Amino acid sequence: MTALPPAEARLVFRDAARLRPRVTLSAGVAAADGSDGGWPRYAPAALVPQPPWRAPTDAEWAALTQPLSDPSTPGNAAARVAILRLPEEVVAPLLNAGHRAAEQPHQAFEISRQPDAADAIDRVTEFLRDNGADAESIRSLGFCAKPRGLATATVNTRRRRRAGLHLDRFDARPLSELAESRVRLCFNIGRGDRYFLYCPHSVPQMAEVLGQSDPDGIDEIGRTFLEGRPDYPVVRVAVAPGEAYLAATEYLIHDATTQEIAEDWDIHVAFLCRLQGVGLLQDSL
Ligand SMILES: [Fe+2]
Predict the structure, then answer these.
(1) CA 154 to ligand 1 center in whole angstroms
(2) Cα–Cα distance, 272 to 98 (Å, whole number)
(3) Distance from residue 250's CA to the centre of ligand 1 (Å)
(4) What angle do helix axes 115-130 and 88-103 make, rounded to 10 degrees?
(5) Cα-to-centroid distance, 71 and ligand 1 (Å)
(6) Which of 28, 148, 272, 276 has minimal Cβ neighbours within 10 Å of its Cβ?
(7) Residue 255 CA to ligand 1 centre (angstroms)
(8) How far is the CA of 76 from the centre of ligand 1 (A)?
(9) Coil, strand or helix at 235
(10) How many angstroms is it from 254 CA to the middle of ligand 1?
């Protein structure tokens, strides 16, 4: 098999000592066999990362990350992943409402519509607008709760099947424009760490490796790429309560796992937005 080009995605950081212990790599990728016992069942041909998880080597760490102080940052904005800790006055109201959702996880989405939660969501929207997000582009997806134990958490609601590692398609752009899709900011509003997963080769890179310049099915690119590489190391990053991950989830194959969370439920709230500038990255770990 041909050697892969260097992965495009970079985890941006201010303080390596804070971020590095959060990052682990999978032993590879395999077909989801449903052995996690999660519901709903996986879609046919869904893929999940394979444990055991291990710390990256120094060479892997260097290849996967980029200090915020590096003059080549931002580079391609869609290739940046970051763990952000936004100001306390933005995060605290979200956490308050999130903790209530943790008590009633089956009502998490409804709780996000209650007045204090809606105010907390508005506060994030305002913060994003004041920090370089295009106001028209901002959308909250509401609170979401996932039980512990899932190899991957995302459900394709249309198909009522778990998706496995996947590409978001809210903006549904063609391959050549995926980098212009909105990014996702996803806050951990539970009481314990949660885990974001992503493939550091972007979907356009995967398409290039596969020689597919104009594929019919963008959704198939990641699957075809990964099926041929069972040793591919998926990156897993721990996101602590109150923190958010920032990632272009319409550019990078990704998901979340709840397999090693300490609490009964993973509680989070995601926002989509189009960012101009690098203002938000100043709040990176
Ligand atoms: Fe997703």
Answers:
(1) 6
(2) 19
(3) 8
(4) 150
(5) 30
(6) 276
(7) 5
(8) 20
(9) strand
(10) 6
Task: Report which of 53, 57, 58, 66 is spatially closest to residue 26, judged by C-alpha positions.
Answer: 53
Pairing of strands 183-188, 265-273: antiparallel
Query: Coil, helix or strand for 144?
Result: strand
| Per-residue model confidence as pLDDT tens digits over 142-191 | 999 999 999 999 999 888 999 999 999 999 999 999 999 999 999 999 99
Rounded CA gap, 159 and 46, in Å? 13
**AA identity, residue 155:** V
Cα–Cα dist 62/179, whole Å: 23
Q: Could you tell me the distance, in angstroms and rounded to a whole number, from the CA of residue 159 to the centre of ligand 1?
A: 15
| Ligand 1 geometric centre to CA of 55 (Å) | 24
pLDDT in tens, 38-72: 999 999 999 999 999 999 999 999 999 999 998 88
Residue 261 Cα to ligand 1 midpoint, Å, equals 19
Whole-angstrom Cα distance, residue 142 to residue 194?
A: 17
